[in-house]
């Protein structure tokens, strides 16, 4: 970090200033002092891009209202209000209206002096404390919320906790008390910052500030509550109950303190005697949240009274006497740049956010680490030094440009300082430094040969003198003893490691064997080190901002006594060991040897220096807008003076003068620039010499090609194409009527759209060129998933293979069928197209395609895989492959049967036209269900399906003899021994359960006679329904219909059943006795009908006349015999009949559920 004064504003009449407040949201600066002084200032932001210019005063308004000294000022940034108080106790709230500040509210207690005012983080409540112990809490609209009187407790300040639940009061005695937001005492803060020999009582608190976390925290539960005493003793706590706070003795007579915008730096102002002075001076001391001294800056003037940070912490304001001093701060951001990727960090809510920003593609990757010590980058990788808060270990994480970790190492060495080269990570605490060989994907093969021994980290104490013998180092004692001269900075290259110590000593180690080769000293503490490209020079920035150069090879002395002041950043050129770019305040200097070039106004951080171009990153703007990264706004490329001068010489003077200048200031970039200018002017001799000097082999090849060309216009076109100006090259070719060369140029570039346009301009392109162009355009659209346009161009190119691919992605299977029809037999693409048809289940198209390809076996396999057995059988029969299909079918069916997948077996047999096999399995399923006696509807459906399969078999059998496949299947079934009885009585099972359910329905609906007639039919189905169930139903229905004769016969049957035991027979006999002792066993006459043929009496349940033996079918709707066959309806599916009057209201057959339309 570096800070320097940039501006001073004087207050008129030399009125002393006592307090400052800087609004972080709007940038207003409130200044309060003697004689009622109250001013509001506004500074304009810097106008130049990338330059932190001293701001210009844009507004200076004096606010009247106070008569005495203004002592307390605070901003309400949420509501843009300013609250001020003077020594007389007068409080005024100011508000902004039309660009002018006006009084909004006034309050005067007239009893005591206001010692502190603080708004909560939401800007809704303000707490005001008086010297006499009075406390008032009010709302933003001016209403009083509550007030308390702390008798005998003089107060000196107040702060809200970040969550607004606590109020912290500091007392004149130096104590700190905590109250809740209702004014109830909670606790007394334990003050530990004073040594045991020093009595705390009476030491006043000059500053108490609690960072509210609005801009994130560097790590979870980090110190943020600072208490500063007048003696310079500081206590920084994580919360009010922190028993292990950070303790600091700043050795400053402090007067004020202030956190920066993200709670990482505490600025403490006061007076102290500096080492180089004999008298007391005004100073500002910067302390990290962990209590580490960062920097001390001397402030001119007699008495300093206050300091305030700007909203982004890039500027500070100091109240000194009657002046306001402004200082510009250049923060030490944790960042790195490698492989065109910027990696930077900023505090988040749960830790530190690390962003990887690809400056070329603007691709962003984010990581969150619990705590971050630093970032170092080199070539293709960066290393993050982190802290694992769970196991208290420190981690070194090597990442690539997309934030992916490629290697990691956990260690007990706190990585306060880190460096990186192409093979090793270097980490140092104050006492030790660690060297670790990290592994990358490129190094896996070579490192695997050396084994893990080379990978093992090496730890050294900074006071040791290693000789480079790695085996000895591993056995040394690694105790963590402290040193009297701690490490303060570190730098590394592929050849050397340099460590700086607080005494000014520098230690240089050779790499990779790590041997201490040199020690030399500086006159001040080094803060930053940098090594040039060939490790021959070292640049140092000390803690006062003075930069010097050291020549390690020359004994470590200063190089020509080179010295620059106010330096805060530096970077050596990666391709020239004599060039270094440094940043002094708001200017960049390029040092060549020991001589500086003309400065360039810039405040960016230098990330690369190569080819005489310096790339700077505007990290200040990036940190302020992390979500709006833009290379054009946040990256600036600057050219060194020699590059700028060379350009001017080439543009305005000539090649000869530029050549002389470059010979005096040689650099590959300048020679390349000369070569480009010379070749554009067709000065081939100069161009060739320049290309040789910059080792540009492609440029030399260009010169050779141009030497063989006689036409200057063609030369110019080739030069334009070489430098990427392809439109100009094409224009030059067309101007001399060489359209063929223009087409060849566009073909090499892959600009096939332009190739087509050029071909259409006239004749000259061949059919082969045109076809290649169409194909390439099709490839262009195909690569982007635009299959419709790709298909169009492939059709023009007659590229059947790629056209087939487009049709597949577009699911245009009709076009695929057309492609099949255009291809000759046994074409190689037919197989791929057939496989496409198979993948989407288009069996017929796949079979046709495979047949055309001569792949009969594959066609059959496709039918089998798609479960299209009918097509498989037909195809197999045509090509004499039926036995193979039959065996494959049976094998598959057995596999399904073993897994109890009977319905799939039935479907399989049905598709293969083996209806009887399917019906047999269906009958077996029905019989199993009937054994369970559960859900007659399900059993009936199974029997119906089985019967329908038999009907399908019968229909197939009755086809004409020309249906050869059917005949072969019939022979196959007959040879399989199918039960013929199953064919003849296919509907018996369905009829049985149909009449069973019909009888029960009629019985429940009260049609007892119909139920009796229907139930009597069940006597013919004892093979399907248990006899007991049948005769019980007959007895029940006939008793309800008064047909006791029929009931008697049913009971007789029940009593004579051999399967019953004696108890059950006796029960039925007793029941019969009870019934027939009351009723005579006779049937009513209504239950008999008359045969229309012979007029003989015909029982309603009988379908055969006893007189003439005429058979009458049973109505499947009512269960009665159909005496008039001329008025009977017959189902086309199951061939069962019903009366027209009964079936007329029905849409489906009651038995098989086929359509019943008459």
Automatic annotation (TrEMBL):
Pfam families for the chain: Beta-prop_WDR35_2nd (PF23390), Beta-prop_WDR35_TULP_N (PF24797), TPR_IFT121 (PF25768), TPR_IFT80_172 (PF23387), TPR_WDR35 (PF25170), Zf_2nd_IFT121 (PF23145)
Residue ranges of every copy of the IFT121-like TPR repeats domain listed in the record: 984-1083
Keywords: Cell projection, Cilium, Cilium biogenesis/degradation, Cytoplasm, Cytoskeleton, Repeat, WD repeat
GO cellular component, one term: non-motile cilium
Chain ranges of the IFT80/172/WDR35 TPR domain: 670-759
SMART domains: WD40
UniProt keyword annotation of Membrane present: no
Gene3D superfamilies: 1.25.40.470, YVTN repeat-like/Quinoprotein amine dehydrogenase
GO biological process, one term: protein localization to cilium
PROSITE patterns for this protein: WD_REPEATS_2
Record-linked InterPro entries: Beta-prop_IFT121_2nd, Beta-prop_IFT121_TULP_N, Ift122/121, TPR-like_helical_dom_sf, TPR_IFT121, TPR_IFT80_172_dom, TPR_WDR35, WD40/YVTN_repeat-like_dom_sf
Residue span(s) of domain IFT121-like zinc finger: 1113-1155
Intervals holding WD repeats: 63-96
Record domain IFT121 second beta-propeller: where: 335-639
Domain IFT121/TULP4 N-terminal: from-to ranges: 1-330
Coiled coil (UniProt feature): none
Database matches in SUPFAM superfamilies: Putative isomerase YbhE, TPR-like, WD40 repeat-like
Presence of keyword Cytoplasm: yes
Subcellular location: Cytoplasm, Cytoskeleton, Cilium basal body
PANTHER family: LD29485P (PTHR12764:SF5), WD REPEAT DOMAIN-RELATED (PTHR12764)
The name this protein goes by in its record: WD repeat-containing protein 55 homolog
């Amino acid at each position: 970090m570096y800070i320097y004064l940039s501006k001073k504003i004087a207050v008129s009449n030399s009125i002393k200033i006592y307090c400052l407040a800087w609004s972080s949201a709007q940038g207003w600066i409130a200044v309060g002092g003697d004689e009622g002084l109250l001013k509001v200032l506004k500074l304009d932001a810097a106008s130049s891009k990338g330059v932190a210019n001293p701001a210009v005063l844009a507004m200076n308004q004096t606010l009247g209202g106070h008569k005495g000294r203004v002592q307390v000022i605070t901003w309400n940034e949420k509501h843009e209000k300013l609250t001020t108080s003077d020594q007389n106790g007068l409080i005024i709230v100011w508000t902004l209206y039309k660009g002018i500040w006006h009084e909004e509210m006034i309050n005067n207690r007239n009893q005591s002096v206001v010692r502190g005012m603080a708004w909560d983080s939401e800007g809704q409540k303000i707490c005001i404390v008086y010297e006499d112990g009075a406390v008032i809490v009010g709302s933003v609209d001016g209403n009083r919320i509550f007030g308390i009187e702390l008798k005998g407790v003089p107060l000196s300040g107040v702060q809200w906790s970040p969550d607004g639940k606590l109020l912290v009061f500091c007392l004149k005695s130096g104590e700190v008390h905590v109250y809740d937001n209702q004014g109830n005492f909670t606790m007394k803060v334990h003050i530990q910052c004073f040594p045991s020999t020093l009595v705390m009582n009476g030491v006043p608190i000059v500053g108490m500030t609690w960072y509210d976390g609005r801009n994130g925290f560097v790590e979870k539960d980090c110190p943020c509550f600072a208490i500063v005493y007048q003696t310079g003793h500081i206590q920084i706590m994580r919360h009010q109950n922190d028993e292990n706070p950070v303790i600091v003795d700043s050795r400053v007579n402090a007067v004020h303190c202030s956190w920066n915008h993200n709670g990482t730096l505490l600025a403490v102002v006061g007076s102290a005697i500096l080492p180089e002075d004999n008298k007391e001076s005004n100073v500002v001391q910067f302390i990290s949240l962990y209590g580490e001294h960062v920097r001390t800056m001397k402030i001119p003037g007699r008495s300093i009274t206050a300091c305030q940070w700007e909203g982004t912490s890039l500027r500070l304001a100091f109240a000194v006497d009657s002046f306001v001093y402004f200082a510009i701060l250049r923060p030490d951001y944790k960042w790195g740049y490698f492989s065109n990727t910027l990696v930077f960090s900023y505090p988040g809510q749960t830790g530190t956010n690390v962003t990887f920003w690809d400056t070329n593609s603007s691709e962003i990757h984010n990581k969150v680490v619990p705590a971050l010590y630093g970032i170092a980058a080199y070539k293709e990788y960066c290393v993050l030094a982190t802290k694992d808060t769970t196991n208290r270990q420190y981690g070194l994480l090597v990442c690539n440009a997309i934030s992916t970790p490629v290697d990691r190492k956990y260690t007990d060495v706190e990585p306060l300082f880190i460096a990186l080269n192409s093979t090793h990570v270097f980490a140092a605490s104050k006492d030790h430094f660690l060297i670790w060989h990290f592994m990358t994907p490129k190094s896996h093969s070579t490192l695997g040969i050396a084994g893990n021994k080379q990978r093992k980290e090496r730890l050294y104490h900074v006071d040791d003198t290693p000789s480079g013998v790695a085996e000895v180092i591993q056995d040394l004692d690694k105790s963590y003893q402290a040193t009297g001269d701690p490490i303060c900075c570190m730098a590394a290259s592929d050849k050397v490691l340099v460590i700086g110590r607080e005494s000014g000593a520098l230690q240089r180690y050779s790499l990779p064997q790590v041997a201490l080769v040199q020690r030399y000293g500086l006159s001040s503490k080094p803060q930053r080190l940098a090594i040039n490209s060939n490790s021959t020079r070292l640049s140092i920035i000390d803690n006062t901002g003075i930069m010097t150069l050291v020549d390690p090879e020359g004994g470590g002395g200063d190089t020509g006594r080179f010295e620059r002041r106010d330096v805060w950043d530096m970077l050596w050129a990666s391709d020239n060991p004599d060039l270094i770019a440094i940043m002094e305040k708001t200017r960049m200097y390029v040092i060549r040897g020991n001589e500086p070039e003309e400065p360039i106004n810039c405040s960016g951080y230098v990330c690369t220096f190569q080819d005489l171009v310096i790339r700077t990153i505007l990290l200040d703007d990036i940190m302020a807008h992390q979500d709006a990264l833009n290379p054009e706004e946040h990256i600036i490329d600057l050219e060194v003076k020699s590059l700028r001068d060379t350009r001017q010489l080439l543009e305005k003077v000539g090649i000869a003068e530029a050549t002389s200048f470059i010979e005096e200031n040689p650099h590959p970039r300048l020679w390349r620039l000369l070569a480009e200018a010379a070749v554009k002017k067709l000065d081939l001799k100069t161009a060739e010499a320049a290309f040789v000097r910059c080792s540009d082999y492609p440029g030399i090849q260009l010169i050779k090609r141009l030497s063989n060309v006689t036409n200057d216009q063609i030369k110019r076109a080739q030069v334009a194409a070489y430098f990427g100006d392809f439109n100009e090259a094409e224009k030059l070719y067309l101007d001399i009527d060489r359209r063929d060369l223009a087409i060849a140029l566009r073909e090499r570039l892959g600009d096939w759209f332009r190739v087509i346009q050029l071909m259409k301009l006239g004749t000259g392109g061949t059919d082969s060129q045109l076809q290649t162009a169409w194909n390439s355009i099709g490839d262009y659209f195909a690569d982007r998933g635009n299959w419709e346009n790709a298909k169009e161009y492939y059709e023009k190119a007659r590229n059947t293979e790629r056209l087939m691919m487009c049709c597949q992605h577009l699911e245009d299977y009709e076009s695929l069928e057309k492609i099949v029809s255009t291809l000759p037999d046994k074409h190689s693409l037919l197989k791929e197209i057939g496989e496409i048809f198979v993948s989407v289940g288009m069996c017929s198209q796949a079979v046709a395609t495979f047949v055309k390809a001569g792949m009969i076996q594959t066609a059959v396999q496709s039918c089998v895989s798609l479960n299209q057995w009918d097509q498989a059988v037909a195809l197999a029969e045509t090509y004499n492959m039926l036995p193979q299909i039959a065996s494959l079918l049976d094998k598959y069916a057995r596999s399904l049967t073993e897994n109890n997948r009977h319905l799939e077996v039935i479907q399989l047999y049905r598709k293969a036209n083996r209806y009887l096999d399917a019906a047999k399995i269906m009958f077996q399923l029905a019989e199993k269900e009937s054994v369970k006696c559960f859900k007659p509807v399900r059993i009936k459906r199974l029997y119906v399906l089985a019967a329908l399969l038999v009907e399908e078999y019968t229909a197939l059998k009755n086809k004409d003899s020309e249906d050869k496949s059917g005949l072969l299947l019939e022979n196959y079934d007959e040879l399989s021994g199918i039960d013929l009885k199953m064919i003849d009585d296919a509907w018996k099972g369905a009829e049985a359960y149909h009449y069973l359910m019909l009888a029960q329905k009629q019985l429940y609906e009260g049609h007892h006679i119909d139920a009796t007639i229907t139930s009597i039919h069940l006597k013919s189905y004892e093979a399907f329904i248990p006899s007991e169930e049948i005769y019980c139903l007959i007895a029940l229905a006939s008793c309800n219909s008064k047909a006791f004769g029929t009931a008697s016969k049913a009971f007789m049957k029940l009593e004579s059943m051999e399967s019953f035991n004696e108890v059950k027979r006796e029960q039925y006999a007793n029941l019969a006795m009870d019934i027939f002792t009351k009723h005579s066993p006779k049937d009513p006459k209504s239950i008999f009908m008359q045969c229309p043929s012979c007029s003989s009496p015909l029982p309603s349940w009988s379908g055969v006349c006893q007189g003439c033996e005429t058979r009458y079918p049973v109505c499947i709707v009512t269960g009665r015999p159909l005496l008039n066959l001329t008025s009977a309806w017959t189902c086309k599916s199951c061939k069962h009949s019903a009366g027209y009057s009964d079936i007329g209201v029905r849409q489906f057959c009651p038995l098989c559920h086929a359509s019943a339309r008459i």
